[in-house]
């Protein structure tokens, strides 16, 4: 049926019901006034004579106060408020009108009061009864029996949505909740059966088919505990996405999704100072290197929402740059931006870019980051991570940029690999440049980023889809994790609060064992580790450490305005002369493809890091060329 016709028919039926209820309430008020006995002739005559005025006034008030904008199927408190206003206004105007017409002759004073109560019940009662019947009609289908975890606002709306579903694919049986005040009570007529620790017991007693977690704001620690309990039941479970329900004030079944590994590895959300971030970035010309990568592209998205004067995107990957350009054109049509396909190691191109675009803030995200791959790609790591940083940072200093933000890594702390060593030298370059010009140089250091290109999570997903095995390097290896949006928020926050020379690190919480990550991802896929999907331990890869660190022991911790963000100033490090000579030696040896000389120069710059030449290393002419150009 045509939706417009259906809507008009529904409104007509509602108006007809309400219009009929008016004379019924008016005449019944007289009857009740005379104790359900015969009404004296003069009063019944008065009732009939006044009825047209009552119909006109009360019908008009019902329309004016919008009783027909609501749908009976979803009648709620706002509808009851509108009905009360309409009946109150109607009763008052009826009394005034009848007094003006015939001084309310033969109209007992109690009749309007009784009429008010009857009319209120006749308008509100059928609507609420209709909704109750729809919400609680008998379930004759073979829908899945559901236990809802969380009896708060989100659980309430989720249960309501299930009961409204005309197909009744899901049948809510009850709730569990850890809050004592909720246990033993009812929500939407469904019992709160106990605490979450009783889930396995309740599942057996009630014949539950599906578990639904209505706790979109649960911490990662709470989520891990709940998932472990749910896994004991052997039943599938679903979760509501974080924050979405609170943003639009509604929940429905379409928002449910499987629990993801990000739900288990995330941490309590860090409240950053968004007004300060926007104030620091708005109206500025902002350059982002590596703009097509995992971190760079998310930086572009978030900075684009901060109203910059212009975004300047740099990447040496053609497809990545094209992809972020297309995304900006679709999502930010009014944003002024330019994109440049160039390599940060191309000094002349970088200088020309700074001269033509005149950026005010620079976010340097361009880097090679894959630890085992870079172990025998020393030249590529040095050129991109070290020389590229030096070229961009010096251009920022020469052209009077306001801030330069280097995106670094926890692997730069006591580096055990080429990637970490190259990033530590990049940090040293920025700290040496700070104070030598108007530009403030800031470093942001964080751990592993969930879902970034080359990270372990996509690898494990692919291995699980292929049936295994899932390869873990060591049973005890552990890492810090954070999400891409959280990492980018840290970067932007650091850019506006830094005075120059600091290394900012987000409070990363507790490290997560990679073994636990693999086991949970297998379980979340509906299978059991080492039964359906084997876990294979393959040994530490070249350059890997069992544990990552966030600070050097020699770094001086500096408090910041944000309790979840820490800062450090590196005390030990190469002097200005040592750094300049070491960088010159690195550049010369890289230009000559002299692997041993590059290692020697690295060892001089970083005495804490030592790597001997590998006798089984591929020939010098093949080292570093393909990766650098990839």
UniProtKB/TrEMBL annotation:
CDD domains to which the protein is assigned, alphabetical: UDP_invert_4-6DH_SDR_e
Top-rank taxon, per record: Bacteria
Pfam entry (one): Polysacc_synt_2
Transmembrane feature ranges: 12-31, 51-71, 83-101
Stretches assigned to the Polysaccharide biosynthesis protein CapD-like domain: 286-568
UniProt-listed Gene3D superfamilies: NAD(P)-binding Rossmann-like Domain
Keywords: Membrane, Transmembrane, Transmembrane helix
Family: Belongs to the polysaccharide synthase family.
Identification of the protein by name: Polysaccharide biosynthesis protein
Organism the protein comes from: Thiorhodococcus fuscus
């Amino acid at each position: 049926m045509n939706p417009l016709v259906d809507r008009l028919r529904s409104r007509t039926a509602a108006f007809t019901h309400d219009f009929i209820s008016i004379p019924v309430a008016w005449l019944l008020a007289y009857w009740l006034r005379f104790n359900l006995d015969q009404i004296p002739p003069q009063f019944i005559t008065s009732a009939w004579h006044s009825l047209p005025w009552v119909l006109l006034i009360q019908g008009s008030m019902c329309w004016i106060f919008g009783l027909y904008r609501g749908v009976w199927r979803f009648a709620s408190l706002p509808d009851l408020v509108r009905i009360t206003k309409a009946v109150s206004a109607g009763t008052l105007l009826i009394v005034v009108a009848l007094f003006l017409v015939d001084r309310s002759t033969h109209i007992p004073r109690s009749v309007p009061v009784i009429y008010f109560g009857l009319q209120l019940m006749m308008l509100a009662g059928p609507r609420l009864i209709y909704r109750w019947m729809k919400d609680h009609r008998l379930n004759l289908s073979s829908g899945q029996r559901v236990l809802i975890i969380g009896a708060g606002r989100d659980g309430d709306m989720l249960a309501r949505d299930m009961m409204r579903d005309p197909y009744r694919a899901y049948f809510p049986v009850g709730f569990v909740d850890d809050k004592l005040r909720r246990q033993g009570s009812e929500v939407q007529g469904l019992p709160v059966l106990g605490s979450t620790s009783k889930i396995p017991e309740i599942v057996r007693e009630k014949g539950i088919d599906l578990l639904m977690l209505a706790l979109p704001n649960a911490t990662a620690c709470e989520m891990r505990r709940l998932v472990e309990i749910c896994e004991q039941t052997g039943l599938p479970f679903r979760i509501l996405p974080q924050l979405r329900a609170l943003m639009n004030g509604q929940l429905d079944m379409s928002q449910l999704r499987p629990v993801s590994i990000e739900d288990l590895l995330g941490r309590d959300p860090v409240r950053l100072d968004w007004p300060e971030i926007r104030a620091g970035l708005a109206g500025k010309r902002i350059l982002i290197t590596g703009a097509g990568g995992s971190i760079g592209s998310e930086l572009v998205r978030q900075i684009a929402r901060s109203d910059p004067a212009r975004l300047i995107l740099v990447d040496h990957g053609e497809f990545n740059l094209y992809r972020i350009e297309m995304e900006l054109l679709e999502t930010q049509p009014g944003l002024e931006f330019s994109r440049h396909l160039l390599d940060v190691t191309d000094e002349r191109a970088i200088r020309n870019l700074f001269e033509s675009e005149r950026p005010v803030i620079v976010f340097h995200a361009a880097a090679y980051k894959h630890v085992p791959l870079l172990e025998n790609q020393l030249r590529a790591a040095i050129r991109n991570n070290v020389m590229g940083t030096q070229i961009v940072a010096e251009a920022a200093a020469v052209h009077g940029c306001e801030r330069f933000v280097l995106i670094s890594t926890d692997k730069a702390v006591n580096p055990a690999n080429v990637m970490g060593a190259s990033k530590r030298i990049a940090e040293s370059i920025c700290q040496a440049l700070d104070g030598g010009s108007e530009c403030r140089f800031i470093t942001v250091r964080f751990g592993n980023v969930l879902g970034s290109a080359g990270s372990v999570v996509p690898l494990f997903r692919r291995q699980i889809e292929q049936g295994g095995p899932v390869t873990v390097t060591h049973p005890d290896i552990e890492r810090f994790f954070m999400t891409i949006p959280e990492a980018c928020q840290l970067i932007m926050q650091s850019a506006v609060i830094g005075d120059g020379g600091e290394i900012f690190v987000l409070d990363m919480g507790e490290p997560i064992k990679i073994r636990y990550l693999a086991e949970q991802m297998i379980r979340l896929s509906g299978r059991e580790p080492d039964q359906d999907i084997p876990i294979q331990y393959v040994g530490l890869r070249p350059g890997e450490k069992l544990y990552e660190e966030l600070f050097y022991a020699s770094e001086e911790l500096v408090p910041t305005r944000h309790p979840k963000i820490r800062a450090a100033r590196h005390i030990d490090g190469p002097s200005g002369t040592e750094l300049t000579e070491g960088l010159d030696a690195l550049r010369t040896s890289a230009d000559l493809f002299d692997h041993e000389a590059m290692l020697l120069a690295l060892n001089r710059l970083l005495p804490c890091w030592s790597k001997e030449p590998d006798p089984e290393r591929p020939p010098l002419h093949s080292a570093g060329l393909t990766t650098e150009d990839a």
